[in-house]
Amino acid sequence: MGKGKGDHPPQKFIGDQFFCQLFIFVFMGVSITLSSLSAGMDDGGSFPFPYVFTGFVLGPILLVNLISRWYVVRAVQKKGVTRKNILEILNNTTFGKHIWPWSCRVGMLWCIPGSILTGLGGVNCGIEENHDNANGTSRVKNNCYYDIEGVHGEMYKGLAIGLVVIHVFSFVYLLLSNCPVHSVLEQIKEDPRTTTATPANNRPAAAPAATATPAASTPQASPNGGAGNETEMKTKIQQLENRVRELESRERQVRELSVLPPPPTYNELMNSDGYKSTGAHPDNTFS
């Protein structure tokens, strides 16, 4: 797992585990290969413990850890890549709860003596010469496991250095991944909540709906709210009341204008009594 403070998605856990499995497979192959190449060396030195088996022990431990990681990844992919499913499989399955963390701890415990044993018998060793001043003689001693002055002495020393490096890298790697549940809790964020939001209605409300009682159309103030929330709620209620009064005033003006009669037509004006009483007619002039 990479670094993070709860900001990684669950899918990153799957990607990290594929990356981890690749590294463990490489460590396992290199450790077994180095031990295999060192198995045929002669024990021409004075170191009493053969260290060639250290890689053969580390390899199976890494294999068990590799299988446990593979099982967890497959189970999560089958059930669904979510934080809840990852934690459930790590807590409720034998591979996730026991085999994964314990294979890491056993591997860490073995890497310490394996590194020391390989370092003393194959790396930090050589020809030691002791002088006896009393007798005037000197004694040469090879404190490695193999014949350091032999034909393949340098090759065996290189293989021993490689075994020490693999043990150190494996120790660090197993140390960083021996608590998978803790890593998920610390680094993987909660599953995103999918909420179905109702689209906002931007159309203006109809005029009759605007004349409803303000108290019925406005939400009640929360009794547990602070003074600031109450003040804000009162301000909103006052604004709504002013808006309702404005809409009612406009509606009243429209209603009054719609009641006025239409203007009279020309024919109505010509036929009206007032026009007849004031207008002159030629027949009345000569009667």
The amount of beta strand, in percent, is: under 5%
What's the gyration radius in Å? 47 Å
User: Which class do the helix and strand fractions yield?
Assistant: mainly alpha
Largest sheet geometry: 2 strands, antiparallel
Give an overview in words:
By secondary structure, this protein is mainly alpha-helical. The chain has helices spanning 10-38, 54-79, 83-92, 94-123, 153-176, 180-187, 207-210, 214-217, 227-259, 266-270, 273-278, 282-285, and strands at residues 127-132, 137-142. It has a two-stranded antiparallel ribbon with strand order 1-2. Strand 1 and strand 2 form a beta hairpin. The protein is rod-shaped, with a radius of gyration of 47 Å. The chain starts with 9 loop residues before the first helix and ends with a helix. The model is unreliable at 194-202 and 204-219 (pLDDT under 50).
Sum up the structure in keywords.
287 residues; rod-shaped; 4% strand; mainly alpha
How is the topology of this model organized?
Layout lengths: L9 H29 L15 H26 L3 H10 L1 H30 L3 E6 L4 E6 L10 H24 L3 H8 L19 H4 L3 H4 L9 H33 L6 H5 L2 H6 L3 H4 L2
